[in-house]
Amino acid sequence: MSNASFIVVANRLPVDSVVDDEGNRTWRRSPGGLVAALEPVLQANRGTWIGWAGAAGAAPEPFEADGVTLLPVELSETEVLRYYEGFSNASLWPLYHDAVEPRVFRRSWWKSYYEVNARFAEVCAREAAPGATVWVQDYQLQLVPGMLREKRPDLRIGFFLHIPFPPVELFMQLPHRMEILQGLLGADLVGFQRPLAAQNFLALTRHLLGYRPRGHYVTVDDRLVRADAFPISIDTAANEEIATTERVRQRAKEIRDELGEPETIILGVDRLDYTKGIEQRLKAFRELLEDGRLKVPKAVMVQVATPSRERVEQYRTLRDRVEREVGRINGEYGQVGLPAVHYLHQSFDRYELAALYQAADIMAVTPLRDGMNLVAKEYVASQIDNRGALVLSEFAGAAGDLRQAFLVNPHDLTDLKDGFVTAANATLDDKMKRMRAMRRYLRKHDVSRWARSFLTALGVPERGAAYNPGSQPAAD
Ligand code: ADQ
After folding, report:
1. Which of 87, 116, 323, 475 has the fewest CB neighbours in a 10 Å radius?
2. What is the CA radius of gyration of the chain?
């Protein structure tokens, strides 16, 4: 047994492998708020992060990065296909997102999901110091809390779900639904993005397992399990800092110039995923051009669609459909040198992304369903002159936090179109009031606050403080 007193278990390690010209491998930290938020806690507690390194085959040796031990878990090519692309991304992902795309179930996928979860739990049980805290992340690892509890009842276990948790009727479709629920109930604290998700979970413990939840708690074998909402956020200060750099301000001007100085730039930035409502957004834009409520080149759309899960069938067909729609809009409404939609199927660094955010008059964040949506929050934090407008789906968790956004129902095309027109016609005064209020909110509710509130609820002392489960408070 090792002596890690704080462990994060996630599908992926927070690093990407980079191989140089001579074939030597190094690791680059992947960008993201989660890593930034957890780093101080990990560092102060000689923490360990357990996860897959991103390539099938033998796992690399454990290594250290910035004072944190990274412990890679092996996944075979078949497991990547069945556990990751199959059960996680073709069964659970669509089902948990209100089945906006049909979910697929295969028995061989479940077997692999079970085996991989058992492997993660085993590695974690081996690494954890007596009484250590373990924080398990997301839908790929829902069995880990239960499996870990069985091996190591001494541990304090937290689980956080980054995506929505479905209502009872939908969850009931899931083969092995009992095992999943029991897996989650192995945790002391089960965290969700929104209160409704926690309520769905608690209702299911009654419906499926006959437990009697009270308030936020349910008693399982004399253990109290708490289910509650902890809306995730961004590193607001870091986003604001990037947005104020000369490099970003200059680049934002250049982008507007390159687009031909339009009056209204509508921007979408999403992983290319059917939950993000990209097709519906494009259709709304096409109809607005058709109706003459928006006109090219005064109004243009920029859609950044980050490549994602490209080996999963549903994602490949989505890409085809999106690209066909972009082609159709440009064919009908573009002019030579002035396309109506600028479509970028690429990843960008933080600076380019911030410049795009700053150049946009309207940010379109219109998912059909989304756990939170950090793009909406990043856009707000980048609006240092408060001039932009956020059109936000009611079905994104972020709508619970960014209440001054122009809220829309993306399932209703008329409402979506009206939302864009309202935002485009809003007075500067109105837009600035909304943006100021949202920025104030995000300054207070940033990702460190999220991590702190989860860990405090789990019983871990203040962020950064070393956590020694066996120690007594010092007498003063
Ligand atoms: P995602 O579905 O991946 O996350 P989101 O929350 O929007 O969605 O996060 C995407 C991240 O990727 C953002 O930080 C964004 O800046 C970045 N990104 C997007 N396009 C990019 C590009 N072209 N280049 C570089 N970076 C890009 C899941 C859930 C969400 C939940 C998060 C966190 O689906 O609902 O908010 O986890 O819990």
Report:
1. 475
2. 23
445 counts as catalytic: no
Strands in 138-230 per DSSP E: 156-160, 189-192, 217-220, 223-229
Contact call for residues 227 and 201 (beta carbons, < 8 A):
yes
Query: Which amino acid is located at 306 in the chain?
Result: T
- Output the six-digit token pair for 377: 């929050």
- Tens-place pLDDT, residues 155-214: 999 999 999 999 999 999 999 999 999 999 999 999 999 999 999 999 999 999 999 999
With a 6 Å cutoff on the Cβ, whether 376 touches ligand 1 is no
Please pick, among 138, 270, 361, 370, the residue that the annotation labels catalytic. 370
Q: In order of start, what are the domains of the chain with their CATH numbers?
A: 4-229 (3.40.50.2000), 236-444 (3.40.50.2000)
Between CA 326 and CA 341 the distance in angstroms is: 6
Task: Give the three-class secondary structure for 36.
Answer: helix
- The answer, yes or no, to whether the previous bond of 367 is cis (omega within 30 of 0) is no
Please indicate whether residue 304, judged by its CB atom, sits closer than 6 Å to ligand 1.
yes
Nearest-atom number in ligand 1 for the CA of 193 is 38
Q: Given a cut of 50, is residue 31 above it in pLDDT?
A: yes
Q: Tell me which of 192, 372, 445 to substitute to probe ligand 1's pocket, judged by most ligand atoms within 8 Å of the beta carbon.
A: 372
C-alpha dist (Å) from residue 12 to 8, 226, 321: 11, 26, 29
Relative to the CA of 31, which ligand 1 atom is closest?
A: 14
Interacting residues of 120 by C-beta distance below 8 A, sequence separation 6+: 9, 50, 73, 141, 144
Q: Is the pLDDT of residue 2 over 50?
A: yes
- Establish whether 162 is a catalytic residue: yes
The amino acid occupying position 16 is D
